[in-house]
Design brief:
2 domains; 51% helix; alpha/beta; 11 helices; eight-stranded mixed β-sheet; Spore Coat Polysaccharide Biosynthesis Protein SpsA, Chain A
Length: 377
């Protein structure tokens, strides 16, 4: 009978021959007497002697449960996909993602596990940016390189949190040090690009609770950072992939994009009816509004709320009717804001802009709650 594994620790490796031994020693030391049955599963993409070093460590450390997946060249498609292969082979009830370069201190692993158990949380993040944490491993503000790395780290953190609401459940969605319950992967289709897996797990899995603990991000040991410009480009490709394939990702931004397209439809129809078909301007305006509202509804159904398809034709008709009523109401609300701003002495262009923004937000809230009946979080 096989022993139940509580935790699988997954450190991907790429030419980390000098870090394997120190990493395993640190893990063995911090996990000793913790009463946690664990395994360490390396996923290796190395082109140096790293796999041979791992094999030697497996033979030498009889007191540790160590395994390795050495991926052939055609499967070496980045850090994030390495993690996914580790997830698939992991036997633990929980899986811990940790870098192999010792910037993620192994001392945090039992703390992450304990937090997950105590909080009954499906995901627990190690955070550099909450009280008690530190990003000192990125470098200091005294050097150009340190300033650059810190600004990039903060930039991608806030970029993801502005774009994707679920990433706001942690103060450090890009840190890469986290633990999760393996059951949340059931039914999830992970398709990361590049080297960030944490956002993928947050965005594509169904989970109820996320917790976090502070940790100190350490200076890289034994070699230099492998970060490249190409990895930066892959990050943005990954964000775009999530944005276009996860319905909840950036839903309000998608709604605004659709709304912007409606402006062009409205003006195009208005111009065409007046200039080419000699329709009266009032009738042309009304027709353009009706058509642009419908195109907005159609595009929102396909793009913004693609996960909430109508089950029947009657439901589709009900949604269209409610959508039109909401749109007409928010147009009136837009006008009220516009006139109020002018009455308070604001420049009319500022008033018009304020009316558009207020109406857009109200429109999004109302159609979300009444047309597609989604919970905003």
């Amino acid at each position: 009978m096989k022993t139940k594994i509580d935790l699988t620790i997954v450190p991907p490796t790429f030419n980390e021959k000098d870090n394997v031994g120190p990493l395993l020693s640190a893990i063995g030391r911090v996990m000793k007497n913790k009463k946690i049955n664990y395994e360490v599963l390396f996923v290796d993409d190395s082109t140096d002697e790293t796999p041979e070093v791992i094999k030697k460590e497996i033979k030498a450390r009889k007191d540790m449960n160590i395994g390795m997946i050495h991926r052939p060249k055609k499967r070496r498609t980045g850090l994030a996909t390495a993690f996914i292969e580790g997830f698939e082979k992991a036997r633990g009830e929980y899986v811990c993602c940790i870098d192999s370069d010792l910037q993620h201190p192994p001392e945090v692993i039992p703390r992450l596990y304990k937090k997950a158990i105590d909080d009954e949380a499906e995901i627990v993040f190690g955070s550099r940016y909450m009280k008690g944490g530190s990003a000192e491993g990125l470098g200091t503000f005294k050097t150009f390189y340190g300033i650059y790395r810190r600004l990039v780290s903060l930039g991608v953190k806030y970029f993801s949190q502005i774009l994707f609401i679920p990433t706001r459940q942690t103060s450090d969605p890009m840190g890469g040090l986290f633990i999760f319950k393996k059951t949340i992967l059931k039914g999830a289709k992970l398709s990361p690009v590049g080297f960030k897996i944490s956002v993928e797990v947050l965005m594509r899995t169904k989970h109820n609770k996320v917790s976090e603990i502070p940790y100190k991000f350490l200076k890289r040991e034994n070699d230099d950072s492998k970060a490249t410009l190409n990895q930066g480009l892959e990050f943005f490709k990954h964000m775009w992939n999530i944005f276009t394939t996860v319905p909840e990702a950036g839903r309000f931004l998608k709604f605004c994009i659709v709304g912007g397209s409606g402006v062009f439809v409205n003006l195009g129809v208005l111009y065409g009816l007046v200039e080419f078909y000699d329709v009266g301007k009032n009738m042309a305006w009304a027709t353009a509004v009706i058509i642009s509202i419908f195109t907005n509804y159609f595009l929102n159904s396909l793009f913004t709320y693609s996960d909430k398809k109508s089950a029947t034709r009657n439901e589709s008709m009900r949604r269209i009717v409610i959508y039109y009523l909401i749109s007409f109401f928010t147009m009136f609300f837009n006008f009220l804001v516009y006139r109020s701003m002018i009455n308070f002495g604001f420049y009319y262009i500022i008033g018009a802009f304020a009316g558009i923004v207020a109406a857009m937000v109200m429109n999004f809230v109302l159609v979300t709650k009444l047309v597609w009946k989604l919970r905003i979080r």
